[in-house]
């Protein structure tokens, strides 16, 4: 089942150009969405068996399968929106993509605000809501312990009202935690990068920064726990409003 209205919309970006995929993911996060990037159709379909997104953004030029084939498979396996984002501008590709279940078709290069507007339109039509920004405070505020995370503004508030403006990378990780508390999350799940190298230490830097903000003793964390050999777990009750 796609995410409920109490959580930010989850979007899968299926794009073989990793740099473009990460750029698009960052833009979506700035507009309040949660997302993951996949460089091929097979990895996205495997993830689909574990967690269904609200919407998939699909590039037609994938390395392991034709994007049109993936669009058809997605519409058969998952009740999610599909936005085709591709360099193919031929009318035949557009018609075929829409006939096989695509909700919209955008040709590269694209303008981010227009793309976000199209995404919100698809989600509204499907009853999934728009971004947390458009859906009001119930979807944007996550409270845990003495903290409150404003997902729309990238702001973390302490009990005394002090506001901490978080970077996009920190918000991505913290949002992943508060959406799935008491679950072990892998490094790939926390970064949204399915092809993350085991030697990439960027996630450790983000975790360290969050622990310094949230933990009384960052060296002995009680909120963001390390599960050795598996990933990390957020050990706090979360309420959305």
UniProtKB/TrEMBL annotation:
<keyword id="KW-0804">Transcription</keyword>
<dbReference type="InterPro" id="IPR039420">
    <property type="entry name" value="WalR-like"/>
</dbReference>
<dbReference type="GO" id="GO:0005829">
    <property type="term" value="C:cytosol"/>
</dbReference>
<feature type="modified residue" description="4-aspartylphosphate">
    <location>
        <position position="59"/>
    </location>
</feature>
<dbReference type="GO" id="GO:0000976">
    <property type="term" value="F:transcription cis-regulatory region binding"/>
</dbReference>
<dbReference type="InterPro" id="IPR001867">
    <property type="entry name" value="OmpR/PhoB-type_DNA-bd"/>
</dbReference>
<keyword id="KW-0902">Two-component regulatory system</keyword>
<feature type="domain" description="Response regulatory">
    <location>
        <begin position="10"/>
        <end position="123"/>
    </location>
</feature>
<dbReference type="Pfam" id="PF00486">
    <property type="entry name" value="Trans_reg_C"/>
</dbReference>
<feature type="domain" description="OmpR/PhoB-type">
    <location>
        <begin position="139"/>
        <end position="236"/>
    </location>
</feature>
<dbReference type="GO" id="GO:0006355">
    <property type="term" value="P:regulation of DNA-templated transcription"/>
</dbReference>
<feature type="DNA-binding region" description="OmpR/PhoB-type">
    <location>
        <begin position="139"/>
        <end position="236"/>
    </location>
</feature>
<dbReference type="InterPro" id="IPR011006">
    <property type="entry name" value="CheY-like_superfamily"/>
</dbReference>
<dbReference type="InterPro" id="IPR016032">
    <property type="entry name" value="Sig_transdc_resp-reg_C-effctor"/>
</dbReference>
<dbReference type="GO" id="GO:0032993">
    <property type="term" value="C:protein-DNA complex"/>
</dbReference>
<keyword id="KW-0805">Transcription regulation</keyword>
<protein>
    <submittedName>
        <fullName>Response regulator transcription factor</fullName>
    </submittedName>
</protein>
<dbReference type="InterPro" id="IPR001789">
    <property type="entry name" value="Sig_transdc_resp-reg_receiver"/>
</dbReference>
<dbReference type="Pfam" id="PF00072">
    <property type="entry name" value="Response_reg"/>
</dbReference>
<dbReference type="InterPro" id="IPR036388">
    <property type="entry name" value="WH-like_DNA-bd_sf"/>
</dbReference>
<keyword id="KW-0597">Phosphoprotein</keyword>
<dbReference type="GO" id="GO:0000156">
    <property type="term" value="F:phosphorelay response regulator activity"/>
</dbReference>
<keyword id="KW-0238">DNA-binding</keyword>
């Amino acid at each position: 089942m796609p995410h409920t209205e109490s959580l930010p919309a989850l979007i899968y970006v299926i794009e073989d150009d990793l740099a473009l995929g990460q750029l698009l993911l960052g833009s979506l996060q700035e507009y309040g969405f949660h997302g993951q990037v996949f460089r091929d159709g097979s990895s996205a379909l495997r993830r689909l068996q574990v967690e269904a997104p609200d919407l998939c953004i699909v590039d037609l030029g994938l390395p392991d399968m034709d994007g049109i084939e993936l669009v058809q498979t997605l519409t058969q396996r998952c009740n999610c929106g599909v936005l085709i984002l591709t360099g193919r501008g031929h009318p035949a590709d557009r018609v075929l993509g829409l006939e096989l279940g695509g909700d919209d078709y955008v040709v590269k290069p694209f303008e981010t605000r227009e793309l976000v507007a199209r995404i919100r339109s698809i989600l509204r039509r499907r009853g999934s809501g728009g971004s947390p920004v458009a859906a009001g405070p119930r979807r944007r505020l996550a409270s845990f312990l003495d903290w409150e995370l404003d997902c729309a503004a990238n702001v973390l508030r302490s009990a005394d009202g002090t506001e901490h403006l978080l970077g996009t990378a920190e918000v991505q990780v913290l949002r992943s935690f508060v959406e799935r508390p008491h679950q072990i999350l892998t490094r790939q799940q926390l970064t949204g990068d399915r092809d993350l190298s085991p030697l990439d230490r960027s996630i450790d830097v983000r975790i360290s920064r969050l622990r310094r903000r949230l933990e009384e003793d960052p060296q002995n964390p009680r909120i963001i726990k390390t599960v050795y050999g598996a990933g990390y777990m957020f050990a706090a009750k979360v309420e959305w409003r």
